[in-house]
Structure formats: C-alpha cells, structure tokens
Design brief:
This protein has 11 helices and 11 strands. A hairpin with a 2-residue loop joins strand 4 and strand 5. The protein has 300 residues and is α+β, with helices and mostly antiparallel strands. Helices cover 41% and strands 17% of the residues. Strands 8-7-4-5-6-3-9 form a 7-stranded antiparallel beta sheet.
Amino acid sequence: DLGESIRFIKEEKPVIGKVVVIVCGINLFLSAMLIVGLPYLVTEVLDLGGAQANRLYGYAEGALAAGGLSYPALGANGFGLKIARQFGLAEAEERPALVGLTLPKEIRARFSALAGNSVPARVWCGKKSFEGPVLFTHDGVSGPAILQISLFCMPGETVYIDFLPGQNVASVFAAAKNSHKTFSGALAEKGLPAKIAKALLSNLERDLANASRAQLEAAALAVNRFAFVPAGTAGLTKAEVTAGGIDTREINPSTFEVRRVPGLYIIGELLDVTGRLGGFNLHWAWSSGFAAAKALEKRF
C-alpha cells in the first residue's frame, strides 16, 4: 500500500525519493514558466487582446489562416500578419488589389455626373491589358476591367482606357467629316453613349465639319487612349483582396510550413499570392489550406 511504499523509499531506497523530488521540482518550474511565460508572450510580445490571446494558448503547431487586410467590415484586422511578423519573415508590402481607382482632382469633376454608368472598354497599364465593363463612380472608375488592372498598376504609373475598343476613332471621324454631326454624335452612332463621349471630350466637343486636323487627332486620342495617373484607390475597405504579404520563399510549397519555424503554417491571403477575378483567390485559399491540413495530419 501507499504507507509501505513510502517506508521502503525512505528507509531502503532514499535515492528514489531524491529523484522524485527533483523531477517534481523541474515539472513545477516548467509549469510555472508555461503559466507565466505563455501569457506574457501572447499579450506583450504579440500584443494581442484577451479574446484573441485565449484562442492561442495551448497550441504547439498550427496554421495562420486569418486573411489579409481587405474588407475590415467582414472582420479583417491584420491579426495574422501581426503574428507572422514576430518571426521576422520576409514580407512584401501590402496594398489594396482588385479595387477601384480614383481620378486626379483636375479631371474628377468631369466624370462625377456619370456615376453609375458603365461602358465596355479596354484598359491597360504597361504590358497588361484587360477588356470588360468600366463603371464610373463618384470619385473615379471601377468595374471588372479596372479591378483587374489594379493588380498590376503600381502607384505613379499611367493607366490607359480605350472607350471604343476595336474601333479607330480617327477613322470614324474621317468617315463622318462632311456630315453635320458633332464629335459625340458620331461616337454615339458607334455605341459610345453621348454623355460619356462629351465628358471625355470636354472642351474638344464641336462639329466635325469645322474641326481642324489637330482637334480631330486630340479628340480621337481622348477616346481611344484616355490616359490618367490614378490619385489612389478605393482603399482596403472596398478592395476584394490584399496584394503583398509573407514572401512565398519563406514556406515549403508542398506543405506551407514556414521553413524557419517548424510547426507554423501560413496559408491563403497572408502569403504574397494574388489572383485575378474569377474565383482564383478563393481557390488559392482552399487549396493552400488543404495542403497544410494534409501536412499537419501526418504529424499527429
């Protein structure tokens, strides 16, 4: 029984008692470090609030799947990035992507009355080009083609829009030169709404018959090659995704485990991977999550 065991250890094998005391002391010390140290790590080093901190206690391995910074109304708050940064991982600067662009103030007033109107167009920046609807907003342009180009257009770069794709406006004007049409009238016959044409042309609007060659060329350029440097974007509150994030070279591409932090997995929008419109970002989130889950499964 217990009494006999204690007597045996005390009288015949005192070394066992000493080992037990030492082991108990070590266990007590480690337990104290866990109880005191882990909360300090989570609340002070990671700077997390109580509710978030409570969800982290007890995890030796896990995956960061907290999403990016886009759409804070849905809960995005940078929680995952805050944790990832504590490990000193390489990171590409985050920015809004798949987002509307704002027009410079000097031309914004011309288009504000068009808010809610859209038109088929081709949009390009550098070597990237997309066709699709362009939607006018109160302070800029949006729509599928604009959202796509926002992935590739960096601050300070020029964005071009062809508001009559597939048609040479100079040729349209030349064919109607001897008519009584205005610039906007000739463009309306080719499918560009007159109110949008007038906003694009601004003070260039006039009768074709009275237009000089320079005026014809300038008007054609304003429609086929409308150029602007975005003043900014609609921001993270309206961006569909966050571009940038943890450098993919930091992770094992098969398991999504961080190379320098065994047991830590990073997936989805936290990584510097951003897809175009069409469900690619959702596919990336699900696929990376599945790969990490399969890797974690093998470790338990």
